[in-house]
Predict the structure.
Amino acid sequence: MKTVIFGENNSDTIILLHGGGLSWWGYREAAQILSKQYRVVLPILDGHAGSDKDFTSIEDTATEVITYIDENFGGRVKLLGGLSLGGQVALEMLAQRGDICENAVIESALVIPSKMTAALLPSSLKMSYGLIQKEWFARKQFAALRIPEEFFEDYFRDTKEITLKNMTAFLTANQQYELKSSVKDTSARVYVFAGGKEMKSVKRSAEMINKAVKGSSIEVLDGMYHGEFSMKYAERYADKIIDICGGK
């Protein structure tokens, strides 16, 4: 697993897992702020540009990150966070190893499977994949995702490097993921966030996670779209993490 690390000499570790089709750079601003107090590890999820292996499943990716924590940080980190696909991986980690972190921040993670969308994805991606190399098409997708403009060059460069096989695999897995019942046994303090302007299924998923994990908290962020909390409002996101972790 490839990683980008900020604040490497700090003792307490935070791991943040990016969304599908994005990469570590989505957390760049937040990581720069957090690195003043914490070691911030940004893994590049399997199947994405710069990764060292193909994507197989959310479950396998979760196991891989757990192994990384075991080998490098004694089996537990201060905080684990994730956006969308990364949020699903984080939830799966909590289900596989309930004590993997002290705190967990789950942003916009879908846990209501959509069989129809998952079934249609392979054929629709196959038809549109060639357009990914075109900047005009990338800009349309980018605008639809409401990602801040400063990320476009990173987004366009990395999206072109994702193979059709991997893109199909992780986007399909994203639509198929279902919350595991064992997540209820986690000892982590879990904080669930969703944007007020997100799809209903994402907001309903946030409610399901909150209900499943005893003692967790939920916040629907007024006026925010998918992924905007960590990417567009990075300072606010970092401040929330510092507050959760008891930092200054």
Q: What stands out?
A: Residues 58-73 form the longest helix (16 residues). Residues 3-112+178-245 form a domain with the Rossmann fold fold (CATH 3.40.50.1820). The radius of gyration is 17 Å.
